[in-house]
Amino acid sequence: MTGRLIAVVGPSGAGKDSVIAGLAAARPGLLVCRRSITRPSDETEPFESLDAETFERRRAAGAFALFWPAHGLSYGIPAETVDQVRSGHDVIANLSRRVLGEAAETYPAVFALVVTAAPETIAERLGARGREAPEEIRQRLARPGISLPPSIPSARIANDGPLAEAVAAAEAALFGRGAP
């Protein structure tokens, strides 16, 4: 039996990592992918912090199944996630929508979970985390919506209200209502 790469995509500030953490708590068998990112550690996001030189050296050595640049940083998904999916595990990862097509070519099964929130919710969350200036937040909010490759099954989850509601909706979309 093949598992799935559950690619969680959506705008910054939509709460992707919070939904991932909630799903992991609700589904102990769900494997959470720990991304590598070329920025300092952040207690609100579980990722491996790498400097640019180390990231590039690891990328060149094949350490990442998927990698992409965004906002002046480099992001990578560990190569071992491919084997985890092939061996029947569902692996959930915070991913860029720009690499969904490549993910579909790399993994035997991909499901896109699109986490959304209203612009005012996103603006408030981005402002609270303090990594972007107000103008940068306005630019993020002006970006076009998410379009997905039509061949990848997907579900959209609104994450404006209580996190428990978004997690329950995501769990139902991924595993069906009442699934064990």
UniProtKB/TrEMBL annotation:
GO molecular function: ATP binding; ribose 1,5-bisphosphate phosphokinase activity
Keyword Transferase: yes
Residues bound to ATP: G10, P11, S12, G13, A14, G15, K16, D17
Gene Ontology, cellular component aspect: cytosol
Record's keyword terms, sorted: ATP-binding, Kinase, Nucleotide-binding, Transferase
Enzymatic class: transferase
Recorded metabolic or biological pathway in which this protein acts: Metabolic intermediate biosynthesis; 5-phospho-alpha-D-ribose 1-diphosphate biosynthesis; 5-phospho-alpha-D-ribose 1-diphosphate from D-ribose 5-phosphate (route II): step 3/3
EC number, UniProt record: 2.7.4.23
GO biological process, one term: organic phosphonate metabolic process
Summary of the function given for this chain in its UniProt record: Catalyzes the phosphorylation of ribose 1,5-bisphosphate to 5-phospho-D-ribosyl alpha-1-diphosphate (PRPP).
Family listed: Belongs to the ribose 1,5-bisphosphokinase family.
UniProt-recorded name of the protein: Ribose 1,5-bisphosphate phosphokinase PhnN
Encoding gene (name): phnN
